[in-house]
Each structure stands twice: as structure tokens, then as C-alpha cells.
Amino acid sequence: MIEGNFKDLGINDELAEILKKKGFEHPTPIQKQTIPLILDGKDLIGQAETGSGKTAACAIPLVQQVDKSVNDIQTLILTPTRELALQYLDEVSSFGTPYGVTPFVIYGGFNKDIHLAKLKSGVQILVATPGRLIDIIYNHYLALENLKTMVIDEADEMLKMGFIEDVDFIKSCIVQKHQTLLFSATMPPPIKRLAGKYMKDAVHIKLNADQSGPSSLIHYVIHAESRSKDRQLSMLLAQKDITQAIVFCNTRTRVKTLYKSLQDKFRDVDYLHGGMEQNLRTRIMDKFRAKKIKVVITTDVMARGIDVRGVSHIINYDFPKTSESYVHRTGRTARLGGEGTAISIVTRSDADIYKEVSEKYGINPVAFPGSAAEDDSSASRPHRGRSRKK
Ligand code: AMP
Ligand 1 in contact with 46 (CB < 6 A)? Predict the structure, then answer.
């Protein structure tokens, strides 16, 4: 059970009251650990479970640390994708704006003049993707002299997307002493090197050791031939208990083809992938959050960090190419202790990664009721996230 309150962690009355009105009455475990350390000015490396409230764990103390009388960037938050940047901004704004601080977000694909004008008018917490930020640092002027804290979110994803040198460059532009907070699901050597280069005596917080996802998440599998995947998916989408679903494919082309084949059969279906114009991506995310879209077909662009309340089902139309991706995709449901269902369609060519999910994370999905493999002897009870394989 979640207990305690934000004031005990050093959050002032005004901000604690705003958080309460927003529905944040008690801090989550990661918030209990990180908030006092961040307020104390410590450098931090956080490895936290997805859906644990890690965005607010960072954003709440950072909002409180802003000196409202200084109209310059005091906090910089770097995220790998635009969707995550927008989501971060939403979280910060939800309590930062009523508290009287000015957050803003910049990312590629959006009108740069608007970004520049807003930056000139005074932004105190800036959320950014690396590309647009570097463009502005190179070609325009960005006041970073009053920056006190830099956050690097989803650092391992930055690495995968080839952004780690950009992050290194941005970091090197901040010459004054400042606090660094680095969040990463895993700590591969290049991230360790980056942390070693810039962070002194960082406190390491690890809440997701050997993580297999929330225990309220049930994992199912449908073993199928490639050619019957569409039929299996249609059967799944026709189920009544789906409130909202994310259907994952491995390529953008597949996303589009699948959308075309489903759009006539199912209403409230849409798709989203990284090759689409940013405005359209944002519109689709907004509609999905507002529950105007029931099913979104997508790629791994939506696998990391994206938080949409009410997603009841994750469907792997294509089984992911890595076991980490399986954990991230399925972590889009059962957030903050809620219930969720993950269903994967697995073909023969997925056998190696499917096995790795079991070996590495102890997740052993059971046959989906009614699917061909249901009678498989291993399929007695649905697997719930954290219970380990014997
Ligand atoms: P995250 O792990 O940052 O993606 O957060 C997951 C969800 O939990 C988000 O919708 C947050 O707004 C929500 N959340 C974060 N902290 C709290 C809290 N202390 N109480 C209630 N909800 C929270």
C-alpha cells in the first residue's frame, strides 16, 4: 500500500496542496527515495520500473527548486522521443504551472520560430529532444548560465537511437557546476562511461532489478502461422473486455498495411509511427489519451515510457525483436498497480526471443483461451508479472 505524504519528503505546503488537488496524495516508492535526494542537490542515477511515477519523482522536486524570480532556464530535461518530451511537459505543467513556474517543450518537426519566440519570453523548465536543442544552441542563442539541474531521461534509449554523442555535447555546453539526474532502464557501458564522466558521487537507485513488469499484468500467447496472424488479431480485437489496446508491429510498413486491413472492420482504430509528421503524431496521441481512439497500431516508438491511463490490452501482432522491448511494450498497461493484459502472437521465427523473455525476465505467457495451443500442458494459469520461473 502507498502511504506517507509529500511534506515529509521536503515538499512545501503550497506544492503539496497542488499535488493533492491533482490526485497525488501519497508519494510512490521511487518518489520517497528520490525527492529528498534531489532537493539535497545530489547527483542521481535512477533505474526505475516503468509506471512507477518516475517522471513526477524527478519533476516534483525540480519544480520546487526553481527560483521564480529568475526568468531563465534552470532545469533542462532531455528525452529521446517527442512523445516522451510532450508527456514530460504535461506532467511538469500539471503542477508546475499552478505553482507559478514556466515549463516548455522543444522538439524537431515543429515550427522553430515559435520555439525561439517562447524561449525568448522566459522559460524556467525546458524539456527537449537532443536534435532541436543542438540546432538552437548552434544557430541561435540559448541562455544556459542559470541552469541548475540537467535530467537525462531514458538514457539507454538515447544510446540506441544514436543520440548519446548529442547528449555528451549538450552536457559539455553547461560549464557551471550543476546537478545531474540520469534515468535508464539498463546501464550498458557507454551510459556508465557518460555517467562516470559527468557525475561525481552519484547516488544509485535501483528499483527494477531483474524487472519483469508489474504483477497485475497477465501475459498470454497465441502460437500461430504467419499467414493466420490477421485472423488472430481480428478475433482478439472483437473481444468485449478491451477498453483500449496498443497493437505493436515491427515495421512502419506493417503498421500501415495492418491499419488498412482493419480500418473497415473496426471503428476507432488509428495508427502512429515515427515516420509520420509530428503534428499528426501529436493529434493521434491526444485522441488516444482522450479515449477517442480505441486501438492504436504502432511501432516501438510507443513502447518506451508512454503513459496512457486505461490501456487494458497490449497486443504484439509482431513479436518484438528483443526481450527488453517485450518488457517495455507490455509495460504500457497495468500502470501504477492497475490491471492489464498482454497478448502476443508468436510464430516459429520468434522462438529465440520468446525463449529469452522467459529466461531473462521469468515471464512465461500461457495460451490465450480459445487459441490452438490452449491445451498445451504448460498453459494452466496465466502468468503474472513478477512471479519467477522455478
Ligand atoms: P510514470 O512512471 O512517470 O510514467 O507515471 C505513471 C503514472 O502515475 C502517471 O500517470 C503519473 O501521473 C501517475 N503518478 C505519479 N506519481 C503519482 C502519485 N504520487 N500518486 C498518484 N499518481 C501518480
Answer: no
